[in-house]
Amino acid sequence: MIDLSDLTAVKSALRAQRIETPSWAFANSGTRFKVFPQAGVPRTPEEKIADAATVHRFTGAAPSVALHIPWDRVADFGALTRYARDLGVEVGAINTNVFQDEDYKLGSVTNPDAGVRRKATDHLLEAISIMDATGSRDLKLWFSDGLNYPGQDDLRDRQDRLAEALREAYARLGGDQRILLEYKLFEPAFYATDIPDWGTAYAHCLELGERATVCIDTGHHAPGTNIEFIVAFLLRAGKLGAFDFNSRFYADDDLMAGAADPFQLFRIMYEIVRGGALDPAYGIKFMLDQCHNIEAKIPAIIRSVMNVQEATAKALLVDRDALRAAQREGRVLESNAILMDAYNTDVRPILADLRTEAGLDPDPIAAYRRSGYQEKIVAERVGGDQAGWGA
Ligand code: PSV
Ligand code: MN
Predict the structure, then answer these.
(1) Is residue 361 part of a domain?
(2) Is the dihedral of CA 146, 68, 166, 245 positive or negative?
């Protein structure tokens, strides 16, 4: 059993944890078969930010919201940033979109056509200008580029084109801005993807320099992949920059973080704690990247934030001295039991206390339900076009 008599260090680490919400999670979404619209869904970036601020109001742990361009393009990003700050949140990572334009059918920055590559790279540069205007530090890059058929294009040339575009974006970064490079095993390309795995992302980040790091989207791996190994490896190499948390059963399911495999989330967070990377000063961004197609969005995002907090609390409870001793002495069963003891501890009362101490309701979802916010947005957000992912 875990000794819960002195939780001072655990609580202060949990108090410092920040989780970023994605603007697109508040909008309508679905599968390629159907998008089910929901009443009260935001119509503008401002309304998405208001929803993100609501998640922060009830959790106290989600003080920034990632934007996605062009879905969140506005005329005045300075004004949008001030609007967000007035509501108590910051603009987080700027996500680029080079996957929803006719021109990108054969790829964006890896396209065989130099004109298309120019257009895609210009979009990356535009996103950095948006970072300048919003004070955002992170440019998050995900490329859908890839091939459906063997022989369709030259695999190696595409890596050269990718490297060239990344170099240009990297050279444009200013101040403490950085690139978070995301990978994804497959989809929409099925034969070959230009950044299919962490190794490829890592190699490109190494080429770029110290301000380029890898973003691990938990949904972007083959079934059974040991993601905590990737975390440990990248942390050791100083190349882990961020997470896009979500849950998967089969592919890029984008379900609520911690819903499908809370044990995996715990194992990931244990490597973060073990690597000393939980402290916000370390610079890892803990983001959600998920969609709520059949469930109510705001409470689902609150639930996801809580799930990440619970996995983190369990990871913090691991008796690391005892674990290390057992590992060094080769006591296999004991090592495993030490980890499982932490995982099997009910940390919900600890997090409830923490919230109460911070002046929050110990049950954020119940508090949200009682607040009347959902009824208010359903009543007010009538007319106009609901935001969606535009697929
Ligand atoms: C791609 O599947 C991805 O995970 C990237 O992070 C995007 O930014 C996000 O989804 C939304 O398209
Ligand atoms: Mn992602």
Answers:
(1) no
(2) negative
Task: Work out whether strand 138-141 and strand 240-245 pair parallel, antiparallel, or are unpaired.
Answer: unpaired
Which residues face 139 on adjacent strands?
Answer: 94, 179
With respect to residue 390, please indicate whether it lies within any of the assigned structural domains. no
Atom 3 in ligand 1: which residue has the minimum CA distance?
142
Full domain range(s) for residue 284: 18-313
Count H helices, E strands: the chain?
14, 10
- Ligand 1 pocket residues where CB is under 6 Å: 24, 95, 142, 182, 184, 217, 244, 252, 289
- Ligand 2 centre and the CA of 352: distance in Å? 29
**Rounded mean pLDDT, 365-377:** 98
Peptide bond just before 188 cis, omega within 30 deg: yes
The beta strand positions in the chain, using DSSP E, are 19-22, 64-68, 90-95, 138-141, 146-147, 178-182, 192-193, 212-217, 240-245, 285-288
Q: Is residue 334 part of a domain?
A: no
Q: How many domains does the chain have?
A: 1
- Structure confidence by residue, pLDDT tens digits, 246-286: 999 999 999 999 999 999 999 999 999 999 999 999 999 99
Which of 194, 244, 293 for a ligand 1 pocket mutation test, highest count of atoms within 8 Å of Cβ? Answer: 244
Query: Per-residue confidence at 391, pLDDT binned at 50, 70, 90?
Result: low
Residues forming beta bridges with residue 286, ordered by sequence position: 19, 243
Q: What pLDDT score does 1 carry?
A: 85
Q: How confident is the model at residue 336 (pLDDT cuts 50, 70, 90)?
A: very high
Return the residue matching tokens 């929901």: 38
How many A from CA of 174 to the centre of ligand 2?
24
Q: How far apart are CA 310 and CA 356, in angstroms?
A: 16
**CATH number (domain holding residue 27):** 3.20.20.150
β pairing state of 146-147 and 192-193: antiparallel
296 Cα: distance to centroid of ligand 2 (angstroms)? 20
Give CA–CA dist 55/107, Å, rounded.
36
Checking if the pLDDT of 11 tops 60, the result is yes
In a domain, 340, yes or no: no
